[in-house]
């Protein structure tokens, strides 16, 4: 008789977080200050002076997606969230792809945020009178310089994330307090004193120049909201899983308020040409228009703090996603090793930081920071829309029985997520087609449609290659059952808790 090997308990993360910690992680991951300081200028270059309209319109499907996350997390809290939920309710291959593209998108986000952080630090050095270092002229628009400086910061915040998620959350919380005080002060002052007249047309989405501009603007805005789900990636580390949902919704509505405030303030203070023309230096320029030094430097400091916090907040959910996938043997065992001292996936966190640094270095083939940002945001926007849409459809399938039991609950649990998913899929498809038809050759450039389309397609294709390896080489049972392991190694309930 062959002895049956003893069952091995799945690795468990340490429960140490409350709802405020979840808000700090999710808000830092969403990075409102970075999105306002950089994303508004990029989006204005597409939609013109209609930023408030785009931010409001993009919020609606994201709110439906957040509702889907909340219901699924209530039934099955799991660090892998969409990877497990889509795999169980739709298809394991799609579930793996959701987990994979979320991680790849996060690594791409970390790579460009690395450069943003370096740019903010170099701008601060310039404001302090340091314009040359070792015979080198410091340039906040140079990807080489900004990436080098940013990688140093990335290493530091990765090491902090290794030593404990609660310590990281507390650091992010203090950075957020400073950021929001500066944002509220400068944006409020800009709304009151800005030289450009307020116009209700700013809130009219029908005034956007073209359908393509509307689609691209919406995806750019969805990207700005991206990160609220970081609250759900630490759901196994919060004391009460419901705190993850509370943190996610709190973050989302806070982002909406800040984005509306920021977009109106920017359009009151800056012209359309100024908005679109300053890219990564938009928040610093905004501050200089409103105040003299040294007060004018405060928005730039806030941008730097936001970038630092979002670097750390990006490392945390990516490591948790890969932890969940490794726990199911769809990725290698190194990702699910939990540090006995810190209770975190320490090795995986270090590897995520190293991957982001490597991608940031590879991105140096794009010579200007603004091109790097535009290319990354456009690519990530499509894969984020796809990931969100599939997770929402998983919720609709999981809770479809509510349509017969309670039509009100059915509307919230099935119809709203489905409509949100379809809108995001439609936007992604339309934007992908517009990229395809906008060019007749391939070129590594932020304004080449084939390059912008090839980047998200490469992310998705690499996911199916990795899935095939996990299915037939690693022989993960995930592809037979679609069920991920939970912290307690128990199957999830398939009914809606009353």
TrEMBL record:
Recall the GO molecular function terms of this protein's record: transmembrane transporter activity
Q: How does it sit in the membrane?
A: Multi-pass membrane protein
Protein keywords: Cell membrane, Membrane, Transmembrane, Transmembrane helix
Its chief place of residence is membrane
Q: Which domain of life is it from?
A: Bacteria
GO CC annotation, single:
plasma membrane
Q: Does the keyword Transmembrane helix apply?
A: yes
Q: What is the protein named? A: Amino acid transporter
